């Protein structure tokens, strides 16, 4: 599986050109992209990156990639990031690594987003992977009640679990928020659910990336498949 992730990352790297401003994703597949990009940078490629997490920042610095912020530049040419699920319309669930807020900020500040993954992440309908929702700790119960109402209005339901870290304590994002993972099974109308979640005051961001990805690069036993959004 790790080899497939690296193959997808290598294929996405073919889209990178000298002088590009890049969004650098978070997660195990995106880590391969950062490492391969670092090899190209050490060989003379001139790019600058905006990391989507403190983990990615550390990886990029270790690989010798020049970094900047979205305060210093107004637009990115390309973001390359992984995904937890991808549907045929290239709508995506992200946030398994806990960086969904910064990932979405960076992706939507980019002209293009390439999602890289192994073929197991390709699904007919989003929702098998628990949907991450980044929330403010204050008023959590009220926020979860509003989330349950949004689920009902969009025809889904399921258990909500506050994410814990490996140490057993509540997982805290780079932005200081918590994550509620919603086990919904199938999300028939992901765009509707995205809209309903976005207007809940206690929700900072959710892991539904609707209409954001322009290309998916999927690596499988039969090779690489590239899917473009229609």
TrEMBL record:
Pathway(s) of this molecule: Carbohydrate degradation; pentose phosphate pathway; D-ribose 5-phosphate from D-ribulose 5-phosphate (non-oxidative stage): step 1/1
Gene that produces this protein: rpiA
Residue positions of the active site: 103
Species name: Bradyrhizobium canariense
Subunit structure: Homodimer.
EC nos: 5.3.1.6
Entry-linked InterPro entries: NagB/RpiA_transferase-like, Ribose-5P_isomerase, Ribose5P_isomerase_typA_subgr, Ribose5P_isomerase_type_A
Catalytic activity: aldehydo-D-ribose 5-phosphate = D-ribulose 5-phosphate
Protein name as annotated: Ribose-5-phosphate isomerase A
NCBIfam families cross-referenced by the UniProt entry: PRK00702.1, rpiA
